[in-house]
Amino acid sequence: MVLWQGIIRPYKGLDFLLYGWRRIAASSLNARLIIAGTGEPRLLQEIRDQVAQLGLEDSVRLDLRFIPDEELPTYYQASDILVYPYKAVTSSGALMTAMAFQKAIVATKLPAFQEVLKDRETALLVDYGDFEALASSLRSLIQEPKERERLAFGMVALDGFNSWSRIAKRTRQCYASVLQGTRQEALS
Length: 188
Known about the structure:
Number of strands: 6
CATH class of the largest domain: Alpha Beta
Structural class: alpha/beta
Number of helices: 8
Strand order of the largest sheet: 3-2-1-4-5-6
Distance between the termini: 61 Å
Largest sheet: 6 strands, parallel
Number of domains: 2
CATH architecture of the largest domain: 3-Layer(aba) Sandwich
CATH superfamily of the largest domain: Glycogen Phosphorylase B
Strand content: 5-15%
Helix content: 40-55%
CATH topology of the largest domain: Rossmann fold
């Protein structure tokens, strides 16, 4: 099971994911993609249409609705691989949520992701738009449970990376730095 979960927006790369997934479906792997989340009705219909046009109905499950917090763990626990094919991003709440579940991840090479994920250590990172690289990364994780396990184990090292106490400490350091700069200017 491969999971994409979140609020559906154009920059989140679902069209890229579905074109890459077409290569997975054509290879007759026993794999399923779950797209779970909500968004504007127009975007939801575009996703439905793309799945139908690409002939992916047998390997893609769409759960296009708001997923309540109490249901999220079920999706993550049932999944083997998490995918973040974003075109652009400054931060990702979905990724931060996913990190706690310590699953193998395939994501695009974006600065916000690269700040947290290390290619081939904690995730497989691909260039946005490289359908073959996306499919190849997914295919290798689908076929190699030990590689999924290795990447998931790499996530253990990130445990606490964005814990509330770490975030509070970094915020406090930021404010202290600003205040220190203000004091320096006042003394000048």
